[in-house]
């Protein structure tokens, strides 16, 4: 019965293909990939390639799986893929609704037309030719201050906005492919600016910018979902990201090639940080773990924390091999970025690298930042509260009770005397780190429909100093 249904399906497909022979070429990236993304990616992606089949890229598609190619370019009737998606009870998609007749015909037409890549259509999302116009303020999910304190980088829609910290407003808008950037970071020497983000269910992207010339050096695209938690190695050779596909990736800045991939996390990875020697990396994930990874091999060295609650952010100490982690339990916890001395038995203390825990917040932590000298560490919460502590003893220095919604991003000024916050309402506020007093309040992006133009922002800043 299965065989008869298959040939009935092929007969119908043959008629359909003849009838549509004069139609425009089918695009892999525009027409076929969206069908695969919805129906096939859950079982056929890099970290879960059932039968060895990865359908997330054109090259992987053509490569096939453990039993060889799954398509015969130019001949849909001889393609294993078509047989597996046809019939009354098709093999694919597994435990899901069968593909529609239109979807099967579209994939078949693409194979019959030669199974071309059409790389020019690889990303439906492209950078705009001109900066976007904002009619409302988007939430601020990340920010980074340049080491010299001159610029504050803030992600917008398809862009990074560089704010001058001396009151001159926005000095440069850096346009890119990603409609949403999840993180930004300057290198330690201030010569490189990196950002990570992407387009949901389409691609993840790392943007590498020359922070002096303000030119895009490289755009690295991988995966089929967004990247998070970007970090740069101290030697400026590598960039790391956490990924929605549960992987940790490291790329070469000079060549843009992926040099490491670690698949030890069980959920989205939100943060990454290099050790001082650039040989190891710590990542944090919603799976509750902080993992130490060897970059040369991609092997897991150790878990450096006892699993408690999902982790959503981390910050690296500017000098020492230490990280501070934050998550849904409302706690900042400080760890050494080193192995705990071997695997311990289940139930034993697995936190030999633990240093200290800071005052508990009554709301999930959204961001953590160290001052440039490492003396202070700050955290922000979903409640909108910001607290600043002494790193060495956990003594609370300042408590800021903001009432503008969740605060998602923090950055200390170069002298450590002020801290910038950004969050749900799309505004950037600078507070005195000692007294917690508001010093400056500006828009994250230039917005037409708000009373706070750049000119009024500057006036407000001066009046509040």
Describe the fold and architecture:
This protein has 465 residues and is mainly beta. It has two domains: 2-119, no CATH class; 144-464, YVTN repeat-like/Quinoprotein amine dehydrogenase (Methylamine Dehydrogenase, Chain H, 7 Propeller). It has helices at residues 2-19, 28-39, 58-63, 80-85, 101-112, 454-464, and strands at residues 44-45, 48-49, 144-145, 151-164, 169-186, 192-199, 203-210, 215-222, 227-232, 238-243, 248-252, 258-262, 269-274, 280-285, 290-294, 300-303, 311-316, 322-327, 332-336, 354-357, 365-370, 376-381, 385-390, 396-401, 407-412, 418-423, 427-432, 438-443. The strands form seven sheets. It has a six-stranded antiparallel sheet with strand order 3-4-5-6-7-8. Strand 7 and strand 8 form a beta hairpin. The protein is globular and about 75 Å long. The termini are far apart.
Sheet with the most strands: spatial strand order: 3-4-5-6-7-8
Sheet with most strands: 6 strands, antiparallel
Structurally, how many domains make up the residues?
Answer: 2
List how many beta strands DSSP finds.
28
Query: So, the CATH homologous superfamily of the largest domain?
Result: YVTN repeat-like/Quinoprotein amine dehydrogenase
The gyration radius over C-alpha positions equals 25 Å
Topology-level CATH name of the largest domain: Methylamine Dehydrogenase, Chain H
Could you name the CATH class of the largest domain?
Answer: Mainly Beta
Calculate the terminal CA-CA distance, rounded to whole Å. Answer: 81 Å
What is the second-level CATH architecture of the largest domain?
Answer: 7 Propeller
Strand content: 35-45%
Described by the principal axes of the CA atoms, the overall outline is: globular
Low-confidence stretches: 1-8, 17-22, 451-465
Mean pLDDT: 86
Amount of helix: 10-25%
Content-based structural category: mainly beta
Put simply, the count of helices is: 6
